[in-house]
Every structure is written in C-alpha cells, then in structure tokens.
C-alpha cells in the first residue's frame, strides 16, 4: 500500500507561497528524506502530512485517508516530532508519557521500556524544565514513538543529541514508514526530496551528495 500520495500539493501563508507543486508517492515501509535550505518549505510539508495544516492546493492522501477531510483519522496514526517537543515542561518525563499513553490507550509498561531505551530511566521523575536540550529531545522522541505509529514524521530527530544518545534513539525511529527532514547531506531515504523556495528541485530514488549540497549553494 502507498503510505503517502501527494499530487500538486501547495500551501500559502497569506501572500507567501511556502510550498507548491509537490507530487510524490511513498510506499509502506519506505523512508522519504527531505532536504532544503531554511525557509524552503520542509516544515510546511511535514505539518500537512501530520494533518496539522491544511493544503491549499492539490490532493493529499496519507495512510489511505484523504486530507484535510479525514485528518482526524491520520492524527492518531502518525508520530510527529517537530521543532517544538510538545511536552509539558512542569510535568516529569514519565508524566508526559503517561499523558500521551492515556490518549492513545497504550499500556504504561511501554513507558518504562521507552525511558530505558532513551537512557532517561534515572531522570524519569524530574520535571522536563530541568532537562538539557538533548534530554528534552530524547523525551520528545519517546513521546512520538510511544503509540507505535504507522508513519513517523520527523524533523531533524537527532538534533542536539550526542553520539551516544543518537545511537540510543536511532533504533526507535528506524524500520517503519518515515518522512525525515535532515540537514546531513549524507543521509538517504528510499526517496529523496529536495525543496528550493517551496518548489521541488528533485524527487528521486538516486541522488548524490552533490545534488543535496547544491540546494544550499
Ligand atoms: N505561520 C507562518 N506564517 C507566515 N509564513 C510562514 C509561516 N510558517 C512558515 N512561513 C513561511 O513559509 C516558508 C516555508 O517555511 P517552513 O517553515 O516550511 O520552512 P523550512 O524549510 O522548514 O525552514 P527551516 O529549515 O528554517 O525550519 C518560509 O518563507 C516561512 O517564512
């Protein structure tokens, strides 16, 4: 099954066109890597796929659901990790994960597993506002994968992580269907999308590091 199908998708903020003419398909189990300079439209695309933002043009289908009409169905099935960690800062890491576990009807045993997996078992009962940036990111990853989503939408998931933390997090965000915004030109998906000023510069299965670097020239 196709996990994502976009046909001529576009989005503007007032007069400013943030994204236009995006057409692509991602099969179940595949990774779409997204590259582009600051302001190229990457976050806008990710938010459309998460059904957090309506497309203004084109047709979008995610996990078999037409957006924006069936956005409610998509929101429960995706794991979204954006720039904002979507955590309550005065709650502990465990309380944040319990909150999301209740929403998604996930057994609490999964929380202990995840806290262990991201190396936060010892700090699990500290409020998030006492955490370092990397610790917040690790908690945010645990939150995004908690309900074993069918599709992961990840904006620079390893940002702020030291190599040890990145190695802990990587297995949690690998293996399934994913869209990953990256600034590492050596990162590859099954399909690689390059955005320039909101338009598709390339969307290919084979791209070179030079193709990716050219987006930032
Ligand atoms: N809420 C908003 N209101 C107005 N313009 C916006 C809004 N969000 C984004 N934009 C504009 O849309 C364009 C694309 O922004 P977007 O955040 O999608 O880029 P990006 O590729 O994710 O950038 P970055 O790498 O800096 O995160 C930019 O010109 C930005 O200024």
TrEMBL record:
Keyword terms, alphabetized: ATP-binding, Nucleotide-binding, Transport
Residue ranges annotated for the ABC transporter domain, each copy included: 4-217
Similarity-based family: Belongs to the ABC transporter superfamily.
GO MF terms held by the record: ATP binding; ATP hydrolysis activity
Top-level taxon of origin: Bacteria
Pfam families registered for this protein in UniProt: ABC_tran
PANTHER family linked: ABC TRANSPORTER, ATP-BINDING PROTEIN (PTHR43335)
Entry protein name: ABC transporter ATP-binding protein
Family matches, as InterPro entries: AAA+_ATPase, ABC_transporter-like_ATP-bd, P-loop_NTPase
């Amino acid at each position: 099954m196709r996990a994502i199908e976009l046909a001529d998708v576009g989005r503007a903020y007032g007069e400013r066109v943030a994204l236009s003419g995006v057409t692509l398909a991602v099969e179940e189990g595949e990774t779409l890597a997204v590259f582009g300079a600051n302001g190229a439209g990457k976050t806008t695309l990710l938010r459309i796929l998460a059904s957090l933002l309506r497309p203004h043009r084109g047709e979008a289908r995610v996990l078999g659901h037409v957006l924006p009409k069936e956005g409610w169905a998509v929101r429960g099935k995706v794991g979204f990790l954006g720039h904002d960690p979507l955590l309550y800062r005065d709650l502990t890491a465990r309380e944040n994960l319990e909150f999301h576990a209740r929403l998604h009807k996930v057994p609490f045993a999964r929380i202990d597993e995840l806290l262990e997996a991201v190396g936060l078992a010892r700090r699990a009962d500290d409020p998030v506002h006492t955490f370092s940036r990397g610790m917040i990111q690790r908690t945010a990853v645990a939150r995004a994968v908690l309900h074993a989503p069918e599709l992961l939408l990840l904006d620079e998931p390893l940002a702020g992580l030291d190599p040890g933390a990145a190695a802990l997090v990587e297995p949690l965000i690998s293996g399934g269907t994913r869209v990953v915004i990256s600034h590492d030109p050596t990162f590859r998906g099954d399909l690689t999308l390059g955005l320039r000023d909101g338009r598709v510069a390339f969307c290919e299965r084979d791209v070179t590091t030079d193709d990716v670097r050219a987006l930032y020239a």
